[in-house]
């Protein structure tokens, strides 16, 4: 269409070479860079591929509505993993009672095996035993393997607060394990003193 | 027995490996991490796990399905029930439609408001990003504009741009639920008026030069453009 005062953009995407990247290009770029990590986190926490796919899309919808925050993040990867963790923890909190049953099954299975339970799987099961504030910190420490100082920086919390949250998680985890696997002891993490 | 839950080790961090592979580390930190990962079994294992993550994504959520899903979720507005009509469109149009929706993601503040169930929105994409055009906001030169329809039960739609001495038909046809196929750039000066008409019968858009020309019983929305 060519009329005075108006220029129709075919498909709405004319002029991609200048100005901001096209939305399709932006989404493809974000997918290439970050979707695998987010999907991996969603699968780990939700233990259901269909739910994880849904959660992946939910996280990216939120991301697209908060692009300036992503751009300001010192590490987009850390920002997105945190967003995915937060989203999935909210989802699994609705299944409050399930972790006890999962832990019981794991404990029963373990009595027939000599292998110790897989540590990240155990962390996942124990998350909901801990207070809400400690759950995210536990994922950042035990799964993402951020140092306490890095977690403090990422969450804009003090180092003592991060330590306190980790102690809360370990205390809750030990209490839960006493029931399901009485012979298993959780020592303090080796890397850093709590 | 003692059981380690893990945590960062001396020089080991899953997040650091992720950041290295994502290109987020630079200079000495990148070199140090790369050297460490090359000689560290634990970080090498993390690297292999990240490759498996990539494989799982490609296998389970290829980009077209991902983009369509994101577009569908963006199109769903909490205060309306648009999903039933929008979902098939998104599924059919795949990536291209996803791009359109992303350019026009709805916000809670509507540029134009409907008296009934149907609404329309005008989105602008310029150097500041993509957003719904706010009331009174000037349209900068070069900005891309796109109308999104939320027609409710209306079946026909027309959109016209009215300038002094000139009226241009932007769209005439079925009342699509969502963004119209074409964006446009307003290259005029001063002020113009954008009119969206939704009706139950086909609309002769060329005859519409103002609100008074809309068919009887139609819903009409108008937004003023200025620069």
Query: Can you tell me the overall shape of chain B?
Result: elongated
Helix content of chain A: 55-70%
Q: Do you know the CATH topology of the largest domain in chain A?
A: Arc Repressor Mutant, subunit A
Largest sheet of chain B: 4 strands, antiparallel
Strand count of chain A:
2
Strand content of chain B: 25-35%
Tell me the domain tally of chain A.
2
Radius of gyration of chain B: 25 Å
Low-pLDDT stretches of chain B are: 77-116
Strand order of the largest sheet of chain B: 2-1-3-6
- CATH hierarchy: architecture of the largest domain in chain B: Sandwich
- Helix-strand sequence of chain B: HHHHHEEEEEEEEE
Name the pair of protein chains with the most residues at their interface, and give those residue counts: A-B, 72 and 65 residues
Fraction of helical residues of chain B: 25-40%
- Chain-averaged pLDDT of chain A: 81
Report the average pLDDT across residues of chain B.
76
Give the N-to-C terminal Cα separation of chain A. 68 Å
Order of helices and strands of chain A: EEHHHHHHHHH
Largest sheet of chain A: 2 strands, antiparallel
Give an account of the 3D structure.
The complex is a heterodimer of chains A (194) and B (227). The longest helix of chain A has 24 residues. With 194 residues, chain A is mainly alpha-helical. Chain A starts with a strand and ends in a 14-residue tail after the last helix. Chain A folds into 2 domains: 73 residues, Rna Polymerase Sigma Factor, Chain: A; 88 residues, Arc Repressor Mutant, subunit A, CATH 1.10.10. Chain A is built from 9 helices and 2 strands; from the N terminus they run ββααααααααα. Chain A is globular, with a radius of gyration of 21 Å. A two-stranded antiparallel sheet of chain A has the order 1-2. In chain A, 39% of the residues are buried. In chain A, a hairpin with a 2-residue loop joins strand 1 and strand 2. Chain B is an alpha+beta fold. Chain B has 3 domains: 47 residues, no CATH class; 42 residues; 119 residues, Immunoglobulin-like (Sandwich). Chain B is built from 5 helices and 9 strands; from the N terminus they run H-H-H-H-H-E-E-E-E-E-E-E-E-E. In chain B, the strands form 2 sheets. A 4-stranded antiparallel β-sheet of chain B has the order 2-1-3-6. In chain B, strands 5-4-8-9 form a 4-stranded antiparallel β-sheet, with no helix packed on it. In chain B, strand 1 and strand 2 form a beta hairpin. In chain B, helix 2 crosses helix 3. Chain B is elongated, with a radius of gyration of 25 Å. Chain B starts with 13 loop residues before the first helix and ends with a strand. About 18% of the residues of chain B have low confidence. Classes of the chains: A mainly alpha (194), B alpha+beta (227). Chains A and B meet through strand 2, helix 1, helix 2, helix 4 and helix 6 of A and helix 1, helix 3, helix 4, helix 5 and strand 5 of B.
